[in-house]
Amino acid sequence: MIKQEFISALKKNWTLWFFLGLVFIFSGYIAGREFWRWFKLSSDYNAIAKNTQETEQQTQGLKRELDNLNNPQILEKEARSRLNLKKEGEQVLVVVSEDDFPQEDFLTSPSQAIENKNGLWFNVLEWKRYFFP
Q1: Longest Cα separation, the chain
Q2: What b/e string do you get for 33-62 counting C-beta neighbours within 10 Å, with b at 16 or more?
Q3: d(Cα 3, Cα 63) in Å, to the nearest integer?
Q4: Which of 93 and 115 is assigned the larger pLDDT?
Q5: Contact indicator for 104, 121 with CB cutoff of 8 Å
Q6: What is each CA distance from 92 to 72, 79, 86, 126, in whole angstroms?
Q7: Are 81 and 64 in contact, with CB atoms under 8 Å apart?
């Protein structure tokens, strides 16, 4: 009985229910779109916050490096290592490992055959033969 009354009420006011359904669907669409927009803004905010933090850390590192370069002792150390500078009266000792030392004989005459054709001294001897026959 109640079911039939409800169905007859729906049939009488179908236009009202139709518009209420449309309003409900439209409201759901708007709410979903706003939620998606909020979600994207939140993720963008987190990415920007992370980028800002990384930039601040990089800035702090560069400030420390600038302060270090204003220190005369560190500036002298950098000049010595990069520009191979030394103080007046100071002697520099260069240590060469066995791996970097050439295998060729330095006293080899051009008439003798050199075994290592890729070596530095072979190339120097070839240039000597080319320019001074």
Answers
A1: 123
A2: eeeeeeeeeeeeeeeeeeeeeeeeeeeeee
A3: 79
A4: 93
A5: yes
A6: 21, 14, 7, 32
A7: no
- Compute the distance between CA of residue 75 and CA of residue 130 in angstroms, rounded to an integer: 45
pTM, rounded to two decimals: 0.42
Q: Yes or no: say if 122 and 116 are a contact pair by the CB < 8 Å rule.
A: yes
Token pair 């439209």 is at which residue? 26
State how far the Cα of 113 lies from the Cα of 100, in Å rounded to an integer: 22
Q: What is the mean pLDDT of residues 97-125?
A: 60
Residue whose structure tokens are 């169905």: 7
Amino acid at 132: F
Per-residue pLDDT at 28 exceeds 90: yes
Q: Is 70 exceeded by the pLDDT of residue 117?
A: no
